[in-house]
Design brief:
Elements (H helix, E strand, L loop, with lengths): L3 H22 L4 E4 L2 H8 L5 H6 L4 E5 L4 E5 L15 E4 L5 H4 L3 H19 L5 E4 L4 H9 L3 E4 L1 H9 L3 H11 L1
Parallel strand pairs: 1-5, 3-4, 5-6
Antiparallel strand pairs: 1-2, 2-3
Helix pairs in contact: 1-7, 5-6
Length: about 180
């Protein structure tokens, strides 16, 4: 019989390690993920995946050598309690037009202040941050703080290319 619990823990550990390997390979301090598929891959967590495809107000920061921080709705903490792949949970700062209208620049600055502080704290002097998808206001706000943003979807796609035996078992079980 298959112990799903230990398989899931192994799966999440493997996936996070794959992301970190690629971050190191691409010389990135970390990656900020908005795509819900990428958030799930790197952290094992999901919440309102269809909604966040349209309104990217949930995100994760994965540092190459440092914490994995999930930024989510203030009332969603219970969805990830006990999830070993996360080091920290913080309330998300949504800075997109749908939520903020004319306050996009102001909120993007608040968001970037927090992200830049984390990159500078855990990046070991590396201020290169990958992003799987990010609006121009976020790029500009990070740039003003000395954090350069770089293509991150390629990192995530390359991380996912090689499957672990646990992933293959879960895929087979899903198909069955």
């Amino acid at each position: 019989s298959v112990n799903i619990s230990s398989e899931l823990i192994n799966l999440r550990s493997y996936r996070l390690e794959r992301v970190r390997q690629k971050l190191t390979e691409f010389d990135m301090a970390g990656i900020v993920l908005f795509d819900p598929v990428n958030i799930r891959y790197a952290t094992g967590s999901s919440n309102m995946q269809v909604w966040t495809l349209h309104n990217p107000s949930r995100y994760a920061l994965v540092m190459a050598e440092g914490p994995v921080i999930l930024f989510d709705y203030h009332a969603a903490r219970h969805l990830v309690e006990g999830l070993e792949s996360l080091d920290e949970y913080r309330n998300a700062i949504s800075w997109f037009y749908f939520n903020n209208g004319p306050r996009v620049e102001e909120m993007a600055k608040r968001w970037a202040d927090e992200i830049a502080d984390l990159v500078k704290q855990y990046g070991g002097g590396n201020h290169r941050l990958a992003a799987d998808r990010i609006d121009p206001a976020g790029v500009a706000a990070l740039d003003r703080l000395g954090v350069s943003t770089h293509e991150g979807q390629n990192i995530m796609e390359q991380a996912r290319m090689i499957k672990s035996s646990d992933e293959l078992n879960m895929i087979r079980e899903s198909i069955r």
